[in-house]
Design a protein that fits this description.
The structure holds 2 protein chains of 2 kinds. By secondary structure, chain A is α/β, with parallel strands linked by helices. Helices cover 39% and strands 16% of the residues of chain A. By secondary structure, chain B is an alpha+beta fold. The chains are: A alpha/beta, B alpha+beta.
């Protein structure tokens, strides 16, 4: 999914962006925060924090229930966020967006409401070895309940999806292809459009795990033709527990509900119920109203910057980071060509275990992630127990990459000799 | 710098030159565990006779804190009675929880790990080998132990 063909006229102004993030005004041990863990969760701009607070300050009521002014405002704001999210990912209509508390819940929704209803013994789900555990475990559970079988696309040494065996793995038995839009450990951007076309050719549906993709790359589900896209709000400037599932209307309409409860019904009888329309059929109970409204503000913020400018900024900083890490003697996992990767950069530095590295970097004011990143299949593939990972977003600067490299030198000194 | 408090020389020495890092086929007891958060894994072997822990060894991989803690542990428990080992495990846990001031004579080099208390997330690394030792001693003596995940 290359978006580098044209350079946007509006380059991202990082200084202006940073001024919108109150957390960067904070000092820890008299030092500014070098936050290189946006793949875990992004920081939040003032606009998002205020939108969420304003919901409680000015508009708080339950949505879709009360017949009074506040309730109408709450409903309007919540539904406006749905319209924004639909527009942001190129969904044809707002009804194709189901709010969930993130990608994990969205994936589980499909695993329960679609897979368990449709799959049978011997049916196959094709995943990849670079999936986050949240795009593996829900399918293992569904496979256990249905007799379906999981297959995996392997990873090349370079960290790309190995599609050489695709013809053998993708057959008429395949009912679902569920792959990441961007690997959270390798940064890889798999060729979603091509995979989707191949999957559709054998009659399989496609789910794309958009946790890392949607915050960083312009996405158009209509153009990609994917059947489902999972969306994490908190990784794209929004509040935690915001996010959603895009699904083609025909699938959402055919699916069972996920959770039963209030608002997802049309009518309830002692022995059965009928369901509300899509997407409300999937939104049982009181939703994360203030959080989804905050996500709407996050989308406004990203749209103002322009996702092409966001992507360009991240390509530049990622290329710079990879170059400097390699120069410093680190082993970098995943592709080095920024046209096929995003800004999550996993590495191994000399003989310093990632945990030791993260502790030492923390003392230097640099926040990175160390561990298996919920990617144990990837760790095994590359023969490491864990990696260090720096990940970038709109507010990161090349000076922060320099701070990372300086901190690595400090780790080298501690472990020298 | 605070780093000196966690990465003391003795820790780095045990990390780079681990003591008793070997399998022990003749061990009466063994156990394996990993820390699912970080992937550190440790197998501890115990050779005991008549209520006395004669020899302890370990194999595994992980960060400097988990590996040096395992190395120091093998040295500190060898030759002790089971009751003494249980006592030491208890006081070590107490030190890592920050509520036992270590007796430097009884603790020896283990005192070096006290600095880890300031890094709560790393305390798990320091106690991993001790968890495994305790489970090995509490187990039914099956040398196969529990497999790492």
């Amino acid at each position: 999914m290359s978006v580098t063909e044209r350079r946007s006229a509006d380059r991202l102004d990082v200084d202006r962006v940073r001024a919108d993030f109150p957390i960067f005004e904070r000092l820890i041990d008299d030092r500014p925060i070098v936050y290189l863990d946006s793949a875990a969760t992004s920081q939040k701009p003032r606009q998002v924090i205020e939108a969420e607070a304003d919901f409680y300050r000015l508009h708080n009521a339950n949505a879709h229930r009360g017949i009074y002014h506040l309730a109408e405002e709450a409903t309007d704001l919540f539904e406006q966020a749905r319209v924004s999210l639909a527009r942001f990912v190129g969904a044809p209509q707002p009804e194709t967006i189901v709010f969930t508390r993130g990608t994990t819940e969205a994936t589980n929704l499909v695993a329960y409401a679609w897979a368990r209803r449709v799959l049978g013994t011997g049916d196959e789900i094709l995943l990849s070895e670079m999936e986050h555990h949240s795009n593996i475990v829900p399918w293992q559970l569904a496979a256990r309940d249905t007799g379906a079988i999981l297959r995996y696309l392997p990873i090349t040494d370079e960290g790309l999806l190995d599609l050489s065996g695709l013809d053998g793995l993708l057959t008429e038995r395949t009912k679902l292809v569920s792959v990441t839009g961007m690997s959270n450990s390798l940064g890889t951007l798999p060729p979603v459009r091509e995979l989707t076309a191949a999957a559709h050719a054998v009659g399989a549906l496609v789910l794309v795990d958009g946790a890392q993709l949607v915050p960083h790359v312009p996405v158009d589900v209509s153009e990609l033709d994917v059947d489902f896209l999972t969306i994490s709000g908190h990784k794209m400037l929004g509040p935690t527990a915001s996010g959603g599932l895009y699904g083609k209307l025909e699938h959402l309409e055919a699916m069972d509900p996920f959770l039963g409860g209030g608002h997802m019904i049309e009518e309830v009888f002692p022995d059965h119920s009928t369901w509300n329309a899509v997407p409300y059929k999937f939104e049982a109970g009181t939703m994360n109203l203030a959080q989804e409204v905050g996500l709407g503000a996050a989308i406004d913020y990203l749209e103002t910057l322009g996702m092409t400018a966001v992507r360009e900024h991240e390509e530049e900083i990622t290329a710079y980071a990879i170059e400097r890490l390699l120069d410093a003697g680190a082993r970098v996992f995943g592709p080095s060509d920024t046209r096929v990767r995003g800004g999550a950069v996993s590495f191994w530095f000399k003989d310093v275990h990632p945990h030791d590295l993260a502790t030492i970097l923390n003392e230097e004011g640099v926040a990175i992630r160390a561990g298996h990143h919920c990617n144990q299949l990837v760790m095994r593939r590359f023969g490491v127990p864990a990696t260090a990972r720096a990940s970038f977003y709109i507010y990161n600067t090349t000076a922060e990459v320099d701070a990372l490299i300086e901190a690595l030198r400090s780790a080298e000194r501690v472990f020298a000799g | 710098m605070a780093l000196d408090e966690i990465y003391k020389e003795v820790i780095l020495d045990h990390y780079k030159n681990p003591r008793n890092k070997r399998e022990m086929p003749e061990a009466e007891r063994s156990c394996s565990k990993n820390n699912p958060l970080c992937g550190d894994e440790i197998t501890v072997y115990v050779h005991e006779d008549d209520g006395k822990v004669l020899d302890v060894s370990f194999v595994g991989q992980g960060c400097s804190i988990s590996q040096s803690s395992a190395s120091m542990m093998t040295e500190s428990v060898a030759g002790k009675s089971r009751d003494e080992v249980e006592g030491l495990v208890g006081s070590f846990r107490g030190m890592m929880a920050g509520d036992v001031e270590p007796d430097e004579d009884a603790f020896g080099e283990l005192v070096a790990l006290k600095g880890v208390v300031k890094y709560p997330i790393r305390v798990k690394c320091a106690v991993l080998a001790w968890d495994v030792l305790q489970e090995a001693l509490a187990g039914d003596g099956d040398a196969a132990g529990s497999a790492p995940h």
